[in-house]
Design goal:
Blueprint (H helix, E strand, L loop, with lengths): L3 E12 L2 E12 L3 E5 L6 H8 L7 E6 L2 E2 L4 H7 E4 L11 H11 L5 H11 L15 H12 L6 E5 L7 H16 L3 E5 L3 H7 L2 E6 L2 E6 L1 H7 L14 H18 L1
Parallel strand pairs: 3-8, 3-9, 6-7, 7-8
Antiparallel strand pairs: 1-2, 1-4, 4-5, 9-10
Helix pairs in contact: 3-4, 5-6
């Protein structure tokens, strides 16, 4: 069994005349939280859709859980789960019924046991028999994450999972993401909140105009930032400052060329 959960090599994708991915390559190790950062339109969601078998690249290769995404899409789908910016919760069903539905769709036995364990894990037992439409935004997101774990996928894709959540709900989701990784699940995260990646990610890649311009741990990324000016206190760069520095540096390099 390889230690690599996700591999991409030279992924390219265009929509009509617009080239969105321009040769994207990276690896994600098993059990780590990997954050892919980028501005709107950088290609983050396109990358996730390719890895989740929802979109075909124009060229390049990728594998997830040891399966080639193009050659074995069914096996990839069996090993992953995808949670997008908007929850997949059916608001007409109760929390328990939502989990039962996903278990049936995955052709799993013991629907009741699966639902009970996940309701308890995500703190939704007391609300299990209420219609999900009455849940708060944070509760819906927790239920959505619980639904994504039905069948114990080895890789979970979270595409901006805290969009629209209040600070308290966001912190709850952060804790759940950490718990997933502690349990051995590989988490592939995209987010617009840079402090989210800073708090959660074992490794961070920055996608800018269709290319990976940085891929390292937060500690290593900070070393790429210009040395801090020492006055009274040495100021450590934030991930937001690193992100802006790397994307502007890439833009300047292209202007010189």
């Amino acid at each position: 069994m390889t230690d690599t959960a996700i591999t991409t090599r030279n992924l390219r994708k265009s929509f009509r005349r617009i080239e969105v991915l321009k040769g994207v390559s990276f690896d994600v190790r098993r059990g780590e939280i990997f954050a892919l950062l980028g501005s709107n339109g950088a290609g983050k969601t396109t990358t996730i859709k390719i890895l989740a078998t929802l979109l075909r690249p124009d060229s390049g290769t990728s594998s997830v859980s040891g399966f080639d995404v193009a050659k074995s899409p069914e096996k990839v789908r069996q090993s992953i789960s995808l949670t997008g910016q908007f929850t997949a919760v059916d608001e007409m069903l109760t929390g328990r019924e939502n989990l039962h539905m996903i278990a049936r769709l995955r052709h799993l036995d013991d629907h009741g046991g699966i639902a009970e364990r996940l309701l308890e894990r995500f703190g939704l037992t007391d609300a299990a028999d209420r219609c999900a439409g009455t849940y708060s935004g944070g509760m819906k997101r927790r239920l959505d994450l619980a639904m994504s774990l039905v069948g114990k996928p080895s890789v979970v894709f979270l595409d901006e999972p805290t969009t629209g959540l209040d600070p308290e709900a966001r912190l709850q989701v952060w804790e759940m993401v950490r718990d997933l990784a502690k349990g051995g699940t590989t988490v592939f995260l995209t987010t617009q909140h840079l402090e989210e990646a800073e708090a959660l990610a074992d490794r961070i890649a920055i996608l800018h105009e269709g290319r990976i311009v940085a891929d390292a741990t937060l500690t290593a990324l900070k070393k790429l930032f210009p040395p801090a000016k020492v006055e009274y206190v040495e100021k450590r760069p934030t991930l937001e400052e690193i992100f802006l520095h790397m994307t502007r540096k890439e833009a300047s390099r292209k202007e010189i060329q």
